[in-house]
Amino acid sequence: MLRGFLLLAAFFGFTGVALGAFAAHGLKDRLSAEYLAIFHTGVTYQLVHALALFGVALLAAHIPGRLVTWAGVSFAVGIMLFSGSLYLLTLTGIGKLGIITPFGGLGFLVGWFCLGLAAWRLQAAA
């Protein structure tokens, strides 16, 4: 899982920076201020959770188990659903895509919960 999560972290980090630059330079005259802010929210959450995936990759090397794996999978799915839906919403103007966003947020919450539970179990075992 170490390699897989590191690759995902690198991919989401790279694309997060690229999308942020694209929005700042290529979309600033094409999208409303409101849609630019929404796009920026997607980029911010993508980059934060790319770093979280990096942390999960490091943890997976030292703390094998399903909770750490589920955290990484949940973060990756969360990025795709949360950030992806915000990108699509702003670029297409299809407001109904916003219904997907909370499912991505739920993915983020599940990921953080799994990390917390993995930490709790470590302390309890020590």
From TrEMBL:
GO cellular component, one term: plasma membrane
Transmembrane segments: 36-60, 67-87, 99-120
Domain of life: Bacteria
Keywords: Membrane, Transmembrane, Transmembrane helix
Chief site of localization: membrane
Localization, UniProt: Membrane
A Pfam match: DUF423
InterPro entries recorded: DUF423 (IPR006696)
Its membrane topology: Multi-pass membrane protein
PANTHER family assigned: TRANSMEMBRANE PROTEIN 256
Protein family: Belongs to the UPF0382 family.
Protein's UniProt name: DUF423 domain-containing protein
